[in-house]
Amino acid sequence: MTEREIKRTSPAELADLADLPDDFWSKADVVIPVKQAVSLRVDQDVLEWFRAQGPRYQTRMNAVLRSYVSQAKRAKSERIARPKTRRQRIRSTR
User: Fold this and answer.
1) Whole-model pTM over 0.70
2) CA–CA separation, 22 vs 25, rounded Å?
3) In the chain, what are the domain boundaries?
4) Which has fewest Cβ within 10 Å: 37, 67, 72, 77?
């Protein structure tokens, strides 16, 4: 895909991202989504805010949830990989 095709097919909200640093995508994870339709209850003000952002609000909601899950997984793996402190070792032997 050429830069021209990418620009032509990209959503308008991405137009101001043209000046990103060269390494911006270096840590990005490629995700091939498998979508599943669900019924989800959210607070009215949250839904109104996302809808006010324009078309594709459900896609943005999914992106927010995906970001949360990604950060939570990363935090969990860091907690698991971190060596125990002296205090934690003492507690686990009691």
Assistant:
1) no
2) 8
3) 25-93
4) 37
Token pair recorded at residue 11: 């959503």
Length of the chain, in residues: 94
Cα–Cα distance for residue pair 47/58, rounded to 1 Å: 9
83's tokens: 């060596």
End-to-end alpha carbon distance in the chain: 61
Taking CB atoms within 8 Å and a gap of at least 24, the contacts of 24-29 are 29/70
89 or 58, which is more confident?
Answer: 58
Pick the residue with more confidence: 43 or 94? Answer: 43
DSSP symbol at 6: H
Q: Are 61 and 50 in contact (CB under 8 A)?
A: yes
> Burial level of 60, CB count in 10 A (0-12/13-18/19+)?
middle
